[in-house]
């Protein structure tokens, strides 16, 4: 079983920054065997891809809506993934989830390719 715990969400004004963290654990879980991703869900909408990172950290993918503003990273020694969010906009308001995936390429843009999900953390950006 895999446990993913997100933290770092909150309320911020437009133009501000937040840093999300995702701590992974599990008795038989090997963190650096998996690609990781951040996905989000706004009220009344489906889950959408935000960013992903390959198992080694050498490859990253971003949704067009966040490219240049968000940065995904991971620390395999700490079993933790991060999402640095800068220049936040009201349309970034959503519940943010971290998730694991067995895929390593462009398939990571598809929310259906993720296996385990955390409980999520709320990000609210006021105008």
Counted beta strands: 11
As a percent range, the share of strand residues is over 45%
Query: Rough shape?
Result: globular
Mean pLDDT: 96
Query: Could you list the spans in which at least 5 consecutive residues all have pLDDT below 50?
Result: none
Order of helices and strands: EEEEEEEEEEE
What are the SSEs and their pairings?
Blueprint: E1 3-7, E2 10-13, E3 18-25, E4 35-41, E5 48-53, E6 60-62, E7 70-75, E8 80-85, E9 94-101, E10 114-117, E11 121-126
Parallel strand pairs: 2-11
Antiparallel strand pairs: 1-3, 3-8, 4-5, 4-9, 5-6, 7-8, 9-10, 9-11
Structure write-up:
The chain has strands at residues 3-7, 10-13, 18-25, 35-41, 48-53, 60-62, 70-75, 80-85, 94-101, 114-117, 121-126. It is mainly β and 127 residues long. Strand 7 and strand 8 form a beta hairpin. It has no helices and 11 strands. Strands 2, 4, 5, 6, 9, 10 and 11 form a 7-stranded mixed sheet that branches. Strands 1-3-8-7 form a 4-stranded antiparallel sheet, with no helix packed on it. The protein starts with a strand and ends with a strand.
């Amino acid at each position: 079983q895999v446990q993913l715990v997100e933290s770092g969400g909150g309320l911020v004004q437009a133009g501000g920054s937040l840093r999300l963290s995702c701590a992974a654990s599990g008795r038989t879980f090997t963190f650096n065997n998996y690609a990781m991703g951040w996905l989000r869900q706004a009220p009344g909408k489906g889950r959408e891809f935000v960013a992903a990172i390959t198992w080694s950290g050498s490859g990253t993918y971003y949704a067009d809506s966040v490219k240049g503003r968000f940065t995904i990273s991971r620390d395999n020694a700490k079993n933790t993934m991060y999402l640095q969010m800068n220049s936040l906009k009201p349309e970034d308001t959503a519940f943010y989830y971290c998730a694991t995936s067995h895929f390593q390429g462009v398939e990571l843009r598809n929310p259906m390719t993720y296996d385990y999900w955390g409980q999520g953390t709320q990000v609210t950006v006021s105008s």
